[in-house]
Amino acid sequence: MSYYVLALFDCDGYPTASTISASKADGINWITFCTGLNNNKTNRIDKCNHASVCFNVADYNITLVGTIEVLTEANGCLI
Questions:
Q1: Phi and psi (nearest 5°) for 69?
Q2: What is the three-state SS of 15-49?
Q3: Phi and psi of 44, rounded to 5°?
Q4: Cα atoms found within 13 Å of the Cα of residue 3, Cβ hemisphere only
């Protein structure tokens, strides 16, 4: 069983982390998460797009650092 931890910054500049399931992924090239458009995660991303994701499985974990963006539509499908 694997899981992801997504870390963002809140409006006061403090880091926040939450466990989240990936809806789609291409290895570590890109990961898609689904969430509501008006919740804490999307509000944090709108204010600061720096993020970190830790992919964890039984034998190892990989932490990625980069930018994140909110997508509302891709190829005609709502994300």
A1: -140, 155
A2: EEEEEECEEEEECCCEEEECCCCCCHHHHHHHHCC
A3: -65, -40
A4: 6
